[in-house]
Amino acid sequence: MNSVEGDTPVLQVRGLSLYYGSFRAARDIDLSIPRRRITAIIGSSGCGKSTLLRSFNRMNDFIPGFRVEGQVRFAGQDIYGGSVDPVSLRRRIGMVFQKPNPFPKSIYENVAWGARVHGFQGSLDDLVERSLRQAALWDDVQDGLNHSALSLDGGQQQRLCIARALAVEPEIILMDEPCSALDPIATLKIEDLMRELATDYTIIIVTHNMQQAARASDYTAMMAMDDDRAGTVVEFDVTEKVFTRPKDKRTEDYVTGRFG
Questions:
Q1: Whose CA, among 8, 41, 96, 190, lies 20 to 30 Å from 178?
Q2: Residue 162 burial (10 A CB sphere; 0-12, 13-18, 19+)
Q3: Taking the model in full, what pTM does it have?
Q4: Quick one: CA dihedral 181, 187, 193, 198, positive or negative?
Q5: 61-117 pLDDT, tens per residue?
Q6: CATH number of 9-255, picked from 3.40.50.10420, 3.40.50.300, 3.30.1330.10, 3.10.450.50
C-alpha cells in the first residue's frame, strides 16, 4: 500500500489497472492522496503518469477502448461505479492541461462559463473576481474583463485556466504538466500559486521537471514501467525523502538524472 501516515487521504486508489484496448498502460496502482497537499507524479515518458492523472476524474472516458480494473474512491464511493455522474465528478475534481486552453471568449466569460453551466445562483461578478484573485490574476485583468482571453500571454492564460477551474468550486485540482509551455518566470508564478491554493485545495501535478517537483510538492509518487511496458508506482513518500533518501533504485536513478 502506497500511503504516508499523518495526512487524511482524499483519494484512495486500490489495485488500479488502466487499459487502452488490450494494452495495459498502468497496473496495480495503490495510492492514498493526502487532502490539501500537493502531490507530484514523476517518471520517464510513457510510464502512464498522465493516464493515471486523468483516471482521477474520468477524463480517459473520452478515449475509445479505455477501461479500468480496480477502484478510485472519492467521497466514500468508487468513481467508476454505475451511480456516479462523470460530469458532476469533474466539477469536484477539476483539470488544468499542459497547454493553456482558454475559450475564444472574454476573460469574464471564461471564468463564468462553467459556473453558469452548473446552475450557479449567486453573483457571477463576485465569483469571477474571487476566482481571478485566487488565481493571482485579478490585478492584471480587472480593467479588461471584456477583452479576449486569447490576448493574454501564456502564463496569464494558464492562470486564467486555473481561475476557470476554481470557479466551479472543486475539491481537487489535477494539473498535467501545467508549466511545460511557460517560461521560467511564469513557471515560478504558477508554483507560488499552487502553494497558496494548497491551503484550500488538494493538488495533484504531473511534471517532468524534477526541480519543480522538489520545490512545489509535499508528496511525490514515482512511476516506472515494468517488463510489459505498463506503468506502476514504485515509490510514494514525502517529497524530501523521495529526493534525498529514495528507497527504490529506479527512483534514485531518475531523480539524479541517470535515466529518464
A1: 8
A2: buried
A3: 0.93
A4: positive
A5: 999 999 999 999 998 899 999 899 999 999 999 999 999 999 999 999 999 998 888
A6: 3.40.50.300
